[in-house]
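Take just one protein record:
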Amino acid sequence: MSVTGESRFPNLTLENSVLLVIDVINSCAHPDYEDAERNIHFNKIRQMVPALSAFITSYRRLGGRVILTTTVPWREPFLAENINDLYRESEEARYWSQDESGRAELFYEIPTDAATVFAKNSYDAFTNEELVATLERINARYIIVAGVFGDGCVMASICGGFSKGYRFVIAEDLIETTDDEDRQALQRFLKLRTWPLMYGATVTAREILAALSPAKVE
């Protein structure tokens, strides 16, 4: 079904798009993985998750395809070497996990039925060659993106996917980061300025569903 009217993404269809949800997992959302000493809190992420869950369900009901990313265990043996180098060289940037339970990588309160799941060992989801091969196989040209962290893995994935030629529709109200004021300010600027000018339509979840729905979304 093609989008009609004065859409900001008139060529978007359910057939040529996929919803990519970045890292809505325990280590990025659950209270047990907050770190008060480093001012890492996830309240704003948890406030966003119910709306994201509803969007995933609605998108699936329309017939849309969903890809979820989680991470490998965020520990030195599993990560891309440039991340390990960064963490070795900068204590401020260092973010190795101490969790070996496997719980950190589980999805946090979002529906996973019928979704395709990929684990990544870097910030950018498009470094996973299997994910890129899947997008090519299903002829996805538009990536509808949501998830966390807006100023981290979401930003890296938008840049990585755009460099591979994909078009982006960015669900601005379904992307969040930690509660830190500086990170929130950076994310606001990305949504206001950087993403819409450089990477794709930055719109609400409601606008996306309205564009893809055969009937008006109330």
User: Anything to note?
Assistant: Confidence is low (pLDDT under 50) at residues 1-6. The radius of gyration is 17 Å. Strands lie at 17-22, 66-71, 116-120, 142-148, 167-176, 200-203.
